[in-house]
Amino acid sequence: MTRLTNCRSIAFSVLIAGLGIPMAIAAPLGLPPVPIPDDNPQTEAKIALGDRLFHDPRFSVDGTISCATCHAPEKAFTDHRRLSEGHSGLLGTRNSPTVINSAYMEELFWDGREPDLEGQSKQPPVNPVEGGLADIGVLVEKIRSEPSYVEAFKAVFGVKAQDITADHFADAIASFERTIIAGDSPFDRYQYGGDESAMSEAAVRGLEVFRGQGRCVSCHLIEQTQALFTDNRFHNIGVGFKTIRGQEAEIARKFLEAKNAGADVDKTVLADKEASELGRFAVIEDINKVGAFKTSTLRNIALTPPYMHDGSLDTLEGVIDFYNNGGREKETDPVTPFLSGGIRPLNLSDEQKQDLVAFLEALTSPEIASQVPSTEIITGNTGDQQP
């Protein structure tokens, strides 16, 4: 593996082919080749520009919020907050998922409202509770007014200042994000590298629980030659149910009225807690997808607390108890009528749950672990406020 010398964050396994020349990304053990769109080929210069844009807080209304604010390399490309914080201390409604291995995601955001990294990257700067810019034109003007950016965009895209667009911005950031990949965990060395000593005995037992009684592998896929630990689908597992319990139909109706009247889905779901809990429904308007959220990858999961779309579970132990209780924090909690069919009590023993935690910890890539000094969860401060 090599690391881009001009990038401040982690860019794994990159084969440099020279400035302006398309290049490939070599996947580490346990991962498939990184998919690269034909209309946005990788180049060293584009990746370096994307890295710079990713870390630049000027693309926010108060000059304090960058992509790296919520996706910090030293926090495994998350922010360790239950709910992410935007400009002026505003809180959104959702937890920031890691960018690591997002190159393999078929839809982006918890509800899949953007089909690719390029589309995803244009949303946060103009979301009222994230970057807060009035519109994407403000972002473009900020780029055009910075001589060093004008020079860089000309070198990468061959455009003059007046021809720089938001699509160029998105292409650069997406190219950088496609280099943030990580495999080669103890699990990978055990499963795909033939090293039977790579995982502890507890983790090996946990793998059997994962594949067997725990039924985790139904959604967090392990394949013969690779493991993304996601099915890239959307499921209602019971998280957030109590927030809109008994009001689902009315909240869905009001949301659709607003959406049909022109309300922006990206802005609505991050500002309105009830609308946020509609999940995939907000995008595809299928009543069967109320409360359904994307299956997150489990790679490096031990380094990315808190968990779930709303950051409501602080620990891996808590997550396992939630699934063991059939999509409930407590066995006495009610069950949502929209619960996905595969969610039901697992009847795991305490030892099985401990082994499962050991296995999940074995999904940590050493390169990521070396960059994350702490996984302390940030619960908020006196400046935090809802929009």
In a few lines, what is going on in this structure?
With 387 residues, the protein is mostly helical.
Summing up helix and strand content along with how strands pair, one would put the structural category as mainly alpha
Described by the principal axes of the CA atoms, the overall outline is: globular
Largest sheet: 2 strands, antiparallel
Q: What's the count of strands?
A: 2
Order of helices and strands: HHHHHHHHEHHHHHEHHH
| CATH-level-2 architecture of the largest domain | Orthogonal Bundle
End-to-end C-alpha gap: 43 Å
**Assembly state here?**
single chain
Determine the fraction of residues in helical runs and give it as a percent range: 25-40%
Strand order in space, largest sheet:
1-2
Assign the CATH superfamily of the largest domain: Cytochrome c-like domain
Q: Number of helical segments?
A: 16
Task: Provide the low-confidence segments as ranges.
Answer: 1-19
Round the mean pLDDT to the nearest integer and report it.
92
Per CATH, the class of the largest domain reads Mainly Alpha
The portion of residues forming beta strands comes to: under 5%
In the CATH scheme, what's the topology name of the largest domain?
Answer: Cytochrome Bc1 Complex, Chain D, domain 2
Number of domains as seen in the coordinates: 3
Radius of gyration: 21 Å
